[in-house]
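Backbone shape codes:
***
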Amino acid sequence: MGVEVNLKDFADFRDGLIKLSQSGNIQAFNKEVVENMASVYVREAKLNTPVGKRSVKFMQRGKIQTKYFDSEHTRQSWSVGKYQLNNTSGKVEVFNTSSYASFLNDGHRQEVGRFLPWIGQSKGGVMQGGRLKKPWVDGAYMHEKAEKVVNKNAKRIMEITLKEWIKKHGGF
């Protein structure tokens, strides 16, 4: 009893990889892998960016005022920079252009005891104001969470990109 193996498909795969490496398309393949990783990073960062439109009515100088909050801007401000290639690797920068993004990601200090008219207790749908109680607001760590997901899935992203690349360029 024996096992017969046809190595033709494996030889074709090997020949295709050799052809790819000799064609100068390795840099284009590297660019595609890096851009796919950047896309996963941005998707994950957007999913972890706190968001919500809301308004709060509050009393100020005897009049009811309305303050509008819109954190959707921070979610929509994720961007991918231009692909950069050096001798051994390629990279892109992923960043958030919102001025508040670093505070939202890393956390921030606040002045304990400061009065804000739009926080505190509500009476008849109108906020009565309140004072800040905590000196530190924890961050949402969107960057760190996105980086963790990309690092965890990097090998899989590369394998999927390689399979797609081979199909697209007359592979096996």
In short: The mean pLDDT is 83. The longest helix spans residues 142-168. The first strand starts at residue 53 and ends at 60.
